[in-house]
Amino acid sequence: MKIDLGDLNAFVAVARAKGFRDGARASGGSASGLSEAVRRLETQLGVRLLNRTTRSVVLTEAGASLLARLGPALTEVETALDVVNGFRDRPAGTLRLNVPVSAARLVLPSIVPRFLAAYPGIRLEVIAEESFVDVLAAGCDAGIRYDERLEQDMIAVPIGPRVQRFATAAGPAYLDRHGRPQHPRDLLGHACLRGRFASGAMPPWEFERDGEVVRVDPTGPLLVTLGGAADL
Asked: Within its chain, how far is the Cα of 172 from the centroid?
C-alpha cells in the first residue's frame, strides 16, 4: 500500500493539535486541506482514525495506535532531511574522481590543495587509470577527460590549463646520425617513440605556431602504453 507522506503529516498535525484549525496553524496549512488529507488517509487504510464533532477531534483506538508509532518515525524522517539539507549548505562526504594518469600528474597537483582547503568536509579519492571507463558505472562521482574523450551525455566544465604543452626531444647521438628535423612533418622520416592509450588509441602529435596547427602521425620501433613505461 502506497501512502502519501503528506497525508501522514496532516494526520499527525491534527492529532497532536486535537483539531483541524489548530493543526493548520501549527503546520502552516489550511483546515480544509488537512481535513481532505485525513479523509483520504482513512479511505486508503479502510479504518477511521479520528472521531469528529463540531467542538472536538478525538483519536480512535486505531488512530491512537498509529500516532504512537508514526510520531517518532516522522521525527526521524525530518531529522534525516535536515542532515541531507546540511550537504547543500556545507558539502561533505567522499568525492571519487576517475582521471587519466596524465591529468593526475599535470592538472590535479595545482588544484587539489586549494579544493581541500576550501571544502574541509570532503574526502577526495582519486582513481588514476588510462582505460577510460564509464565514470558512473565505475562507482565514481565525476571524472576528468580530454575533449576528444567526452561522451555525448556528459556535463563538462573546463578544469586546469586550457593548453598543455609537451616537448619533442632527441638524444645528441641520434641527431648526429640522422640530422635535426626542421619542420614537424620531418618527423615522419624519423624513428619516434609513440604512446598509446590502454583503449588502443594513439593520439597524433600536434604542433602550433602563430595560429598554424600541424598534426603528424609518426612511426617508430618502440610503442608504450601512456602512463606506464612512457616514464622511461
From this structure: 48
* Three-class DSSP category at 2: coil
Q: Which residues contact 212 (CB under 8 A, 6 or more apart)?
A: none
Residues in the chain: 232
- Asked if 168 and 187 touch (Cβ cutoff 8 Å), the reply is yes
CA–CA distance, 10 with 29 (Å, rounded to integer): 9
Contact 10, 29 (CB under 8 A): yes
The full set of domains in the chain, from first to last, is 5-87 (1.10.10.10), 93-149 (3.40.190.10), 172-226 (no CATH)
pTM score: 0.50
Q: Cα 128 from chain centroid?
A: 17
> Which H helix or E strand runs over 64?
helix 61-89
H helix or E strand, kind and range, residue 101: helix 101-106
Q: Which residues of 172-189 are buried (b: 16+ CB within 10 A; e: fewer)?
A: eeeeeeeeebeebeebee
SS3 category, 30: coil
Lookup result for grid cell 593526475:
104
Cα 25 versus chain centre, distance: 40
pLDDT string in tens for the chain (232-residue length): 688 888 888 888 888 888 888 888 888 889 899 989 999 999 999 999 999 876 778 899 998 998 898 888 888 888 888 777 766 777 888 999 998 887 888 889 888 999 999 989 899 999 988 777 788 878 889 888 876 566 667 788 888 776 777 889 999 999 999 999 999 999 999 999 988 876 677 888 999 888 899 999 998 898 887 654 444 4
